[in-house]
Design goal:
With about 650 residues, the protein is α/β, with parallel strands linked by helices. The chain contains 24 helices and 23 strands. About 5% of the residues have low confidence. It is found in: Nucleus.
């Protein structure tokens, strides 16, 4: 049976009529209404609106305003709006007087105040309805531009509902969902031609099938089995099962107007023991994934390692601590280039190697959980030396893989290769020299630790001076291999902190990577927080931090080719479905950060793409399933995917013309 739709705003002129026009054109059974006492249209000033009674024909309003001031009402869009309305119906109608029109299956309002009035009216006559009604509020500002956007979003929403309204609703189900906000000046065309928009995930966080189809364990599979480590004993054994649901996920990307997908390959799914025997079922999975991406017009960005070192290599030679890992990683990378490089043209060696070295070997918070006892609950490790040994080997792994690619494959396959680095922006707490120096130390120990060697062939002087013999040295041959070992660098940017110089400088009882910074962290200045927090305690929303981070890389490292490879925020995992879907704070986050990114591009930063983290709610490392970063909601029991408001915000933003 055909469903009936009602569009409701305050005056039945702009927002409801735009939606009425769009839906009617697409064959929907639709009507539109207003809820105000009168119909109001802008006049010569705010104090002089044009006021009409509901039922006054649009033709009468059009003729009257054209007589009054044709230039004014053409310029402000009122005459074109009324002309459109004339083609839809005769006159504006008032919702409260619509009883004679019968009842509707779906009512969509465009303002919270209007929603409340519709709800009040429906509740006063629910005995007449005797049937379910779905009421949805889309918050759309009352101007022509956003009414047009609201009309398109309404069409998308109604088309979705048309597909899914097969089963009857619960009796008189009333919902207010998804306050979908407009993009406020952002569009695909706001960025340079060819600028790429994508989403990102990682293998262990989304694939599932962790111990099946031939995959060997990674250090994370072992680490999270530590009793009491994970909330609710969470694992990545099933996660969100992209291994089986990859087509559904790629279809979602396409539907949301994304261009690219940044995924990672599980080393132990290809080589269960890290080296030697190949797991061809794992190889086949990534072939299916890549092929379907290309079929749907999604560009693959393949990352070779996202924290998940094969456990076999951890047991064989202490994993990243053993120099043997350099050759093993290069061999693994070589296999991937040879197997997938005919289709994958964008390669990344590592995601956030600093996190691997620091959280894995300084605090033990991440796998493999090594540290000095002073800095974490670890059974083995040395926080003063191991992070630097691990980082050194990771840099050599990266450079060796790049060397293999450039020597054997790049000329034929015509791709590019790089690395993904996390970068928290560190802002001096005060203008003092001491705080400025502390902030610079923090930047050097953070992003400079990896970016400085691959750009300049050596570690930052700050680190060399502070660490002395604890900092490993590159040989002359290694310098030649490491320096310039990237075509593109990915920057993962989420947040910013204030940094101050400890006074007096405190001498640690035991050496450690974080202690070596000799920098204090602050999250407020003169009582004002640096920004509001997301669910994760480390994530402050500081859009200007992104601007400063990208500008810093541009100015200090020769403006390399960059992608903004991760950016996003999380909500608590236990939100109700309606609250999780109505993620307006995430929309505001993306909007603010993208504006800052656009500013860097406008000022000459060589940024070629942006990847939102993450496509899906997933396994969030030490937080398990208690944190949701996705723009698509995942029910962790049924694994059903439901796009959040932020997903539709991206869909709209990436379909908009430049203003």
């Amino acid at each position: 049976m055909t469903k009936r739709y009602a569009m409701v705003c305050s005056s039945n002129q702009n927002r409801s009529m735009e939606a009425h026009f769009v839906l009617k054109r697409e064959g929907f059974d639709v009507a539109s209404y207003g809820t105000g006492a009168h119909v109001k249209l802008p006049g010569p000033s705010i104090r002089e609106p044009n006021v009409y009674e509901f039922g006054t024909p649009y033709k009468h309003m059009f003729d009257e305003l054209r007589r009054k001031d044709p230039e004014l009402y053409k310029r402000n869009g009122i005459l074109p709006m009324l002309k459109r309305n004339l083609g839809v119906k005769t006159a504006p109608q008032r919702w409260q007087d619509n009883a004679a029109d019968g009842v509707f299956d779906v009512v969509i309002t465009f303002e919270e105040k209007v929603f409340d009035m519709v709800m009040e009216d429906l509740n006063s006559r629910d005995h007449i309805l005797m049937k379910p009604v779905l009421v949805i509020n889309l918050e759309v500002k009352d101007n022509h531009e956003e009414a047009a956007t609201g009309g398109r979003l309404t069409l998308v929403l109604c088309q979705e509902m048309k597909m899914k309204m097969k089963k009857p609703f619960m009796f008189f189900l009333i919902l207010s969902v998804c306050l979908i906000q407009c993009s406020h000046g952002l569009s695909r065309e706001s960025f340079p031609k060819g600028f790429l928009f994508g989403t990102a995930t990682s293998a262990y966080q989304v694939e599932g099938m962790a111990s099946k189809e031939g995959r060997g364990p990674s250090i994370w599979d072992v680490f999270i089995k530590t009793p009491g480590l994970e909330p609710n004993n969470a694992t990545g054994e099933v996660s969100v099962d992209q291994y089986h649901r990859y087509k559904e996920d790629i279809d979602l990307m396409k539907k949301l107007n994304f261009d690219a997908y940044r995924f990672s390959i599980s080393w132990s799914r290809i080589f269960p023991n890290g080296t030697g025997k190949v797991n061809w079922k794992g190889v086949a999975y990534y072939n299916r994934l890549i092929n379907y991406m290309l079929k749907r017009g999604i560009t693959p960005y393949a990352n070779l390692n996202h924290y998940d070192l094969p456990q076999a290599l951890q047991e064989k030679y202490n994993g990243w601590l053993g120099h043997e890992v350099v050759k093993d990683f290069a061999d693994y990378a070589d296999f991937c280039f040879k197997t997938y490089g005919d289709r994958v043209k964008n390669w990344m060696t590592f995601n956030e190697p600093r996190v691997v070295a620091a959280l894995g070997y300084d605090t033990g918070f991440f796998a493999p959980g090594r540290c000095s006892k002073t800095y974490g609950n670890c059974t083995a490790g040395n926080s003063g030396t191991e992070p630097y040994i691990v980082a050194h080997n990771l840099i050599l792994c990266h450079a060796s893989a790049v060397q293999r690619y450039r020597t054997k494959y790049q000329k034929i396959q015509k791709g590019r290769i790089g690395i993904l680095l996390d970068f928290v922006w560190y802002e001096p707490l005060t203008k003092s020299k001491a705080d400025n120096h502390a902030a610079q130390r923090a930047r050097d120990f953070h992003v400079g630790w990896f970016l400085h060697p691959i750009v300049y062939g050596e570690y930052p002087k700050t680190m060399q001076n502070i660490l002395g013999e604890r900092l490993p040295k590159f040989t002359k041959e290694e310098v030649a291999m490491v320096k310039g070992s990237f075509d593109v660098v990915g920057i993962n940017q989420y947040t910013a902190y204030y940094i101050y110089n400890p006074n007096p400088a405190s001498k640690p009882k035991e050496l450690g990577y974080q202690q070596d910074w000799n920098a204090g962290f602050a999250y407020a200045r003169q009582g004002v927080p640096i920004g509001p927090t997301a669910y994760s305690s480390w994530l402050y929303k500081v859009p200007w931090g992104l601007y400063k981070a990208i500008t810093y890389v541009k100015e200090r490292y020769g403006n390399p080719t960059m992608i903004l490879a991760e950016n996003g925020m999380d909500d608590p995992g236990n939100l109700t479905l309606s609250k999780a879907l109505n993620d307006t704070s995430r929309i505001e986050y993306y909007k603010a950060y993208l504006k800052e990114l656009k500013k860097t591009v406008d000022e000459g930063a060589n940024v070629q793409g942006y990847f939102a983290w993450s496509l899906l709610d997933n396994f969030e490392w030490r937080l398990g399933y208690t944190s949701r970063f996705g723009i698509v909601y995942v029910n962790f029991k049924t694994l059903k995917r439901t796009p959040k408001s932020s997903a539709y915000w991206f869909q709209n933003m990436l379909s908009r013309k430049k203003e």
